[in-house]
Amino acid sequence: MAKGNRILVWDGALRLFHWSTVLLVVAMWWSAENHMMDWHRRMGMILVGLVTFRLAWGLLGPRTARFTSWQLGPGAMLGYLKSLKHGVHKPSFGHNPIGTLSVIAMLAALCVQLGTGLFAVDVDGLESGPLSTLVSFEAGRQAAEIHEVSFNILVALIGLHVAAVAVYLIFFKDNLVRPMVTGRRASEDFGDVPLSDAKLSWLRLAIAVAVALAAMWGISNAG
């Protein structure tokens, strides 16, 4: 990739969300496997806050964080796939069409995982999510079963995501991990594409954080 002036593509809040989610998903799997359900629930609530923040940030954040920047049209997808077929990879200022689908799939899987976990009840009725008192035991058990299946789907999606990152690195010499750490890419990567500033707006950040905290508080007090 070109090595010239480096510009900010991913804002700090989005990068913090990304890596915090990675760590929390691993930690929640570990806590469940070791039957540390108190910690599992605590980390689940933090993850609820993070996902709520990401949804709010998709409306309030800089250009590359916003849902409106996602390339979802069939024309964009087909054009991008054709370019890859011919061995041509043109970096996108933000998520490329395939990356967009990956983000949508993983966010959806996370929402299902968290949503079912909030209502889940174990076989003995001893371990349960914070909102399990709002549903019947049968509904709680069904949520628990979906919770288990959705985690396997989430793991599969994460595996595909990691594999795609490896493919871009090996075949296109494009390191997608470094920009998600530093937030920056070489400006030459984007050619004549008009670029916008990815710097944080502290007011909008405060609003998104407040929405996330309100969601956590509401769930914690609803049961």
Summarize it:
The protein contains seven helices and two strands; from the N terminus they run βααααααβα.
Describe this structure as you would to a colleague.
- By secondary structure, the protein is mainly α.
- It has one domain (6-184, 198-222): Up-down Bundle (Fumarate Reductase Cytochrome B subunit).
- 65% of the residues lie in helices and 3% in strands.
- It contains seven helices and two strands; from the N terminus they run βααααααβα.
- It has helices at residues 12-33, 37-60, 74-85, 97-119, 137-172, 177-182, 202-222, and strands spanning 6-8, 184-186.
- The chain has a two-stranded antiparallel sheet.
- The protein is globular and about 60 Å long.
Task: Summarize the main sheet.
Answer: 2 strands, antiparallel
- The CATH topology comes to Fumarate Reductase Cytochrome B subunit
Helix content: 55-70%
Query: Biggest sheet, strands in spatial order?
Result: 1-2
N- and C-termini, Cα separation: 52 Å
Q: Report the strand count.
A: 2
Low-confidence stretches: none
- Give the overall pLDDT as a whole number: 90
Counted up, domains total 1
| Shape-level CATH architecture | Up-down Bundle
